[in-house]
Amino acid sequence: MGDQRGVSNMISESETGPAGRAGNIAQAGVSASGQGGAPVPRQLPAPVRDFTGRGHQVAALDRVLGNDMTAYGTVAVLDGTGGVGKTSLVTHWAHRVQDQFPDGTLFVNLRGYGPSEPLDPAVVLAGFLTGLGVLQDQVPAEPDAAAGLFRSLLASRRVLVVLDNAATAEQVRPLLPTTAGCMAVVTSRDSLTDLFVSASAHRISLDLFGSVESYALLLAVLGRVRVEQEPDAASELVRLCAGLPLAVRLAATWVALRPQWRIADVVEEIKEDQLADDGISGMVGEAVQAVFDWSYTRLAPEPAQVFRFLGWHPGTEFSMPAVAVLCGLNHRETNRCLEALAELHLIEPVARHRYRMHDLLHAFARTRARLDTSDEQHAARERVLTWYAHVAQLADRLLYPGFPSLDLEIDRVGPTPTLEDRARALAWFTAEQPTLHAAARTALEWEFHTLVLALAATSRFLTYLSRPLWTVRLDIETFGITAARALGDLAADFFLRESHSETLSMLGRWEEAEAGFMSLDTPRNPQRYTAFIGLGGVHCKQGHWQQARDCYQQALPLARAHGLARTLAVIEGNLAAVAIRLGEYEQALAHIERERDLRHQAGDQVGHAHSFYRAATAQLAQGHHAPALEFAERALAGYRELPGIDKLVARALELAATCLEHVGDLARAADYLQRAATLYTDLELPADAVRKRWREVTARATAQPEA
């Protein structure tokens, strides 16, 4: 009887459309037999330096942790106004207690307030599940199923879940643990009163700092000697900051960096500033607004311009090259300005040449940016959005070489990052993911429709990530379809509707996906074959193998008319996957042979290697171990030639090890399994089951008598 390991994975690899929208190159997956360990996620950001005060709230969290952990799903809600220090407090406290949660700490910024849309709970669940060891292609697409799996995984673990910056109770509810031993801490500007009823949450409110706490923070930043030299001025500075820790830190940092200034000088200048009502005073209060404005007016002209223009950046996290384009400056000037802003805590560094801005300061920067001319505002936004679209296209071509694309002409508006290979392209996309989402929305609002098309067409990278973001991709594709129709671009409309339909399919919205693909079956669509490839994928995901085969066979003659080798290879590969599922192995091998030739013609190196993997699984399922080993080794060699696909290398090592076991070469099988386990560990993927299998095979190899 044949070995089925690896076979069940083949259907999930079938490509829905010729553009490879599902990112199957990265998602070819690892068979379930290869992974079963439970990693321990530690996702907390670094704690704030010189954290001060909040003793009552820290004690309250300690009491909740100590008294209520036997209950089902302990939940605490920290609420308070923006800038009051909720994130600083929860991060400080969570670092103190995370050793009491041996199975991990999950953290997410839900983006409830700021320029970006709040995170969809489904996106968060996908990230949490992969953090807990679920393979990305095994994360349920249906939100309720994902939430159920999340709760099931937490049932036997002690995990702390930190949900920062929540918008609503509805956003939070699917992310809460419901079993003893786990705890969730939620922060929000809203009290989220629904959670007190539905989740028996404990409310802990953060008020503005009192004078004692504000004074303590001032001491922590400025030092005791300097504060005690001007006690009255220090007290007045505290009063002007109106109890908002963010304002205290801004003012204190400015003074700390200028030893020649007296605290009294700063107090006098803040009092002299006269502010118009510009839309932010209602969020922070007039006194705090005075501190923001005073900090801004003290900046030199170039850093002030950069701060102002950051208000037009689509997100609150940004790289130095993007800011250079936004502001029309060179990299040296931009670096100098960003360092000056970071020194004053107007922005904070998160990585080399990468910064984050508090959403209140981002809103304040935008009010200052409105003082620039409308032409300057328009030009700044167009520059930065064009830069993101241009770099996204460059990265997309590296991730998807030879795949269909819109091939839009997007101007180069400044230096671009060095993207030499798939790995660097994916790293750029990963870092910029939230910004690209916001950029697509902003481009649509400002009617930069061609830029929206570029950002939407390259959003397929979202499923190349270790934590696929299907709902975000759906959102961006919707923006793209709107832009295509505004431009009357029928080709772009068909391209994006195909991608949109495949995303719906991956989310388990079968009827909508089927309707979307069927709408592509029209004489106006020159690529009608995409309708049938897509419908075949929908049937595969539902286990309707014969219907899937019928669709793929309908696609074949339509695709042949276009002579696109890669598209024909996709169809042949999908037909092979269906045949394997139906146990028709000889027919599968015939499809695979045709697929391999077509992949070679198209220059699709990954697909060519993958056809060998597919052939190995078909041979293995029939018990043909020697040819299966030969195909597995050829797949492994093909994957190793390409950068950025170590996950596929590891998977091929596992398959080859299985073949080696069957032919009796246990020593090599153990070696391959050890290498696979090392790769999974390096990729931060579960590796315990592979290690267990390696130990078992090693023991058998050791006990095996020498020939």
TrEMBL record:
<dbReference type="Pfam" id="PF13176">
    <property type="entry name" value="TPR_7"/>
</dbReference>
<keyword id="KW-0802">TPR repeat</keyword>
<dbReference type="Pfam" id="PF13424">
    <property type="entry name" value="TPR_12"/>
</dbReference>
<dbReference type="InterPro" id="IPR011990">
    <property type="entry name" value="TPR-like_helical_dom_sf"/>
</dbReference>
<dbReference type="InterPro" id="IPR027417">
    <property type="entry name" value="P-loop_NTPase"/>
</dbReference>
<dbReference type="InterPro" id="IPR036388">
    <property type="entry name" value="WH-like_DNA-bd_sf"/>
</dbReference>
<feature type="repeat" description="TPR">
    <location>
        <begin position="529"/>
        <end position="562"/>
    </location>
</feature>
<dbReference type="GO" id="GO:0043531">
    <property type="term" value="F:ADP binding"/>
</dbReference>
<dbReference type="InterPro" id="IPR019734">
    <property type="entry name" value="TPR_rpt"/>
</dbReference>
<feature type="compositionally biased region" description="Polar residues">
    <location>
        <begin position="1"/>
        <end position="15"/>
    </location>
</feature>
<feature type="region of interest" description="Disordered">
    <location>
        <begin position="1"/>
        <end position="40"/>
    </location>
</feature>
<protein>
    <submittedName>
        <fullName>Tetratricopeptide (TPR) repeat protein</fullName>
    </submittedName>
</protein>
